[in-house]
Amino acid sequence: MTFQIPPTAQQVAQQIAQQVAPLIAVATFLLGQLFAIVLEWLRGRATAAREREARAQARKEAAEDRRAEFQRQTLLDLQEALQALGRTSGEAWAARMHNYGETGTWGSPFGNELLLRQQEAFTRVHVLQTRVLDERLRDLVEQVKVGHQTLELAQSKSAAGEALNAFSISADEANRRAGDLIRALY
Question: pLDDT tens, 42-85?
Fold first, then answer.
């Protein structure tokens, strides 16, 4: 019978270390891979978030550019419409003055063509007024429209003269404000 000597604590520790060493290496490798995957996933999320934010910013800037361009064009169109309304109102004034000189009465002697052009110009001014973002300009255009209506409804030469003066001043102020806004947008 052979007698076996029990292993010492140091020998037991060495045997365990030899058996566990490959497991530790595998576990370390797996943890490293898992950490790399998690790190890559986090980087990917951060990159995706930055790209999403950049696309949103680009869309916002494009929308702001379109809005500014739309506003510029609206203001340019409004200035032209105000000029058209002023021209047709001036033609109507001249026709009324001519009629007043001939008949001594104030009235509307002009034909349907001028009336139609006046109505079209007034409607165009009204439509463009609703598109303007600037409240001050909208108020000035409203004064122009009221001045135009007052001029058209005037019952006497003196009332029409006062209305024409107020209309002209309002139209000039609205035109200047539109010009200021156009320059600010460029």
Answer: 888 989 889 999 998 999 999 999 999 999 999 999 999 999 99
- Would you say the C-alpha torsion 38, 42, 43, 48 has a positive or negative sign? positive
- Whole-prediction pTM value? 0.72
Per domain, the residue ranges of the chain are 65-185
Q: Nearest-CA neighbor of 173 among 146, 137, 149?
A: 137
> Which burial class, exposed, middle or buried, applies to 172 when counting CB atoms under 10 A from its CB (0-12, 13-18, 19+)?
middle
- CATH level 3 topology of 65-185: Four Helix Bundle (Hemerythrin (Met), subunit A) (1.20.120)
Q: Which residues of 74-104 are buried (b: 16+ CB within 10 A; e: fewer)?
A: bbebbbebbebbbebbeebbebbeebbeeee
Q: Over the stretch 125-157, which tens digit does the pLDDT of each residue have?
A: 999 999 999 999 999 999 999 999 999 889 999
